[in-house]
Amino acid sequence: MMKLAFQIAYKNLMGAGLRTWLNVAVLSFAFVIIIFFNGLMDGWNRQSRTDSIAWEYGHGHLQNDAYDPYDAFTLQDGHAEIPSKVKNVTPILVQQGNIYPEGRMMSVLLKGIDKEQGTIKIPTEAFTTSTAQFPAIIGNRMAEAAQLKVGDQVLLRWRDKNGTFDASNITIVDIFDTTVASVDSGQIWLPIETLWEMTGLHNHATLAIANSNYEHVPIEGWNFESQAEMLQNLDDIISMKKYSSSILYILLLAIALLAIFDTQVLSIFRRQKEIGTYIALGMTRLQVVRLFTVEGSMYSFLAMIVGCIYGIPLFIFLNAKGIGMPQASQEMGISLADRIYPIFGLQLIVGTILLVTISATIVSYLPARKIAKMNPVLALKGKLQ
Amino acid sequence: MNSTIISLKNITKRFKVGEGEFTALKDINLDFKKGEFAGFVGPSGSGKTTLLNIIGSLDSPTEGQALVMNKDIAKLSHKESAALRNHHIGFIFQVYNLLPVYTVYENVEFALLLQNHSKAKRHKMVMEALEWVGLTAIADKKPDKISGGEGQRVAIARAMVKRPELLIADEPTANLDAENAHIILKMMKKLNKELDTTFLFSTHDEKVMKYLNRIVHLRDGSVEEDEIIVKEAYQ
To answer: How far is B233 from chain A (nearest CA, A)?
Structure first.
């Protein structure tokens, strides 16, 4: 009987002509937009995770207990010598300082890093080839903010372990390009040995970045935050953004579903005689309800086909070429590339199809329930209100 | 004429109208045998269509018992009354009620789709029905491309294709000119004789009355006269 409902529903939809195709067009647009936005978010998520791991997180951070990355006041005391039993990590010493580019004063974070490291993508090999006394590496954002370029010297002032101020010119030996603003904005990377010399904090580190061979054993005074825990913050941000952007496609879907609902209500009112005829010819009221419900849900099936016709080439193109992100959006404090390559996974597509189909079926069923209460005699006369 | 297929006992039908009630049928007692070619005749509001609707299981009596093919209409569930209509009763309406998005062929085929016949069997039965009404040539046309007379012939084919025991025709000639009305009525009379189908009409058309074997005159919801016509006008 379902086959019959599908056959009849298909004929009715095709017979309805333009009205059907208007609904299908709106619904297919909802399909494509929902998949596009989710694909964009998934692409952003993947890119952010990959870049954050490569540039900042490594395989986790072993942090000094007194250090809180969200509290600058903890930098003063949040460091200690790394126990000798800790292996397979890249120690980082974080200190505060000021630079004076073009006479302006800028507060900066000084980050000392092993010039031989390969744990994160900070291009520390530039230290080894430089002959400068105080070689420094900065990111694009910092370079732009401080108007610095490779080869420039800038005055740096810092405090040593006793609180005594000292100052010297540092030389910019490399500028790196990263999507991870938290290793770039307001930061100057120095060889850790140089920073040790500058501050007198020999062998001290604020944190240590684990590489893939790191095996954690609890160490007093140090707290390990795993890669998964660090990514959780990122996931939370992405998930929050996903929810906020979902408002757009919920609205779009609501418009499409409203169009179907409206069509169904009008259909049931306008096609009373037809409904009466179906019943007179031997259909049960339930069968007629099912027929109208199938008709409504078939909009989503047709929309899926239409959506595929223009959506698949569009998605293939976007997946290959990516979507350019405006400059302003890269300064939000989280990892955002110049171009994001959306990911249109099977789960996303199947999930969206199910969402739209189930929603369309529900909004088709709601008005169709009225048929079950129809008096067929009045329906045949077209006298129902 | 043989077994009784319709038995109406003390049928009364009342409708709610605002705060009060309107009595459409009062204490109707009638029997119809298989193969009858009968009609309910009377002015508007006399209860013709209401009675046909009860017999066709589209409605049920307020009081009394309506037995159609030994089934008590008032006691049938929606599903049972749908099955009765699907297998045993054909309907012809005043305005044909053809399904607009279907071709002539598909309109006639529709009743068979509900009976789950094979495609080949459906095709054979549909073509046979279209031959009865002489419409095989326009099988692919849609209802908006055919004349009123042709439309009513499609409705007859649709009603007859499943070979029902009972065919109910509510004012079948009301929208037809005299020539088409005669064509339709001759056709129905022929099917009545050939297939032994019982035909029940509601009408106030003199042309229809000439073809009926039995005329039940209704007035204000009551049977005024049950007239058996001995000589058939068709012959």
So the answer is: 30
Indicate yes or no: pTM above 0.90.
Answer: no
Rounded Cα–Cα distance for residues B4 and A108 (Å): 104
For residues A82 and A327, what is the distance between their CA atoms, to the nearest angstrom? Answer: 39
Q: What residues in A contact B85, CB-CB < 8 Å?
A: 279-282
Residue A77 to residue A22: CA distance in whole angstroms:
67
Total domains in the fold of chain A: 2
8 Å CB contact between B64 and B117: no
Tell me the CATH number at B45: 3.40.50.300
Per-residue DSSP letters for A218-249?
A: --TTEEEEEHHHHHHHHHHHHHHHHHHHHHHH
Q: Pairing mode, if any, of strands A80-81 and B20-33?
A: unpaired
Kindly provide the ipTM of the predicted complex, given to two decimals: 0.90
Taking contacts as CB-CB distances below 8 angstroms, the residues of chain B near A283 are: 82, 86, 114
Option in B58, B95, B101 nearest A280 (CB)? B58
If residue B33 lies in a helix (H) or strand (E), which one and from where to where?
strand B20-33
Query: Cβ B83–A282 below 8 Å, yes or no?
Result: yes
pLDDT in tens, A163-207: 899 999 999 999 999 988 889 999 999 999 999 999 999 999 999
Secondary structure element (H or E) that encloses residue B51, with its range: helix B48-55
DSSP string computed for B132-149: HTT-GGGTT--GGGS-HH
Residues of A in contact with B93 (CB under 8 A): 277, 280, 380
| CB atoms B91 and A376 under 8 Å | no
B233 within domain boundaries: no
| Residue A188 belongs to some domain of the structure | yes
